[in-house]
């Protein structure tokens, strides 16, 4: 979820709890060896033992198509002691696809194997090594071939998003195809796609045969979903609201003012799916463009103080 699930949102979501581990936004690998600061910028959790401030391990995701440079960058990443290394073979974004990254490689199982084998050779056994894929580019005919190629390359776990590249994010996710992939490999498989509620989570487990589920947009839309799945009591919007304030304070410190408001509104817009209170706050802020004006509105709502903004 590039551009959305950055370290600020990862921080507030994991503050609320319920997650076993997470994956940062992808690090784009081309024909160069990236400096350590690139990894630390995209995944600043590396500077905290590869964990969020509340202790959730954060794995680092690589995206690229050149086996040599993917391996060399993985070697650099390993020197930073990540909680895990993941390869992205699932991103459907047009720009990524045009540059032969992410889901663009799902028509070439042999290349998937070559890339992943090269990375496996430099990732030590004690660091979890995973890959994420979609079911294909425009059909599912090579889904099993891709999964088996990744397994043969030595990954520890496979994450499968139940759509093709062409499917984008249109529902439904093809959970039945995740089950077919799971049955064709011997390593653990984590299912992903269209899990918005506890009921979706249980239905996905049943349909895919997977005990473990990755939630992405569902976690953003309901920051308490991970804990609800675990059967924990939650405080609803009243529990989330302080995290909205924390997020805004983080955005104001990180993002240039002209873009800051859009980040907050994007999150509130997604939470409208589950929380009427998010709709109210979104509508309150929707037409306010200036970051300073949003500051004033947040102060008026009692969410932040001038002292916090000035800190």
Brief summary:
This protein is α/β, with parallel strands linked by helices and 311 residues long. The protein has helices at 7-16, 36-42, 67-78, 94-98, 109-120, 143-153, 175-184, 198-208, 217-221, 225-229, 237-254, 257-271, 276-285, 291-300, 306-310; strands spanning 22-28, 58-63, 85-89, 129-133, 157-161, 189-192, 213-214.
Count of DSSP H/I helices: 15
Computed structural class: alpha/beta
Q: How many E-type strands? A: 7
The percent range for helix content is 40-55%
Instruction: Give the C-level CATH assignment of the largest domain.
Output: Alpha Beta
* Approximate strand percentage: 5-15%
| Overall 3D shape | globular
What is the CA-CA span between the terminal residues?
29 Å
| CATH homologous superfamily assignment of the largest domain | Aldolase class I
Largest beta sheet: strand ordering: 1-2-3-4-5-6-7
Description:
This protein has 15 helices and seven strands. It has a seven-stranded parallel sheet. The model has no long low-confidence stretch (mean pLDDT 96). Helix 1 runs antiparallel to helix 11, helix 11 runs antiparallel to helix 12 and helix 12 runs antiparallel to helix 13. With 311 residues, the protein is of the alpha/beta class.
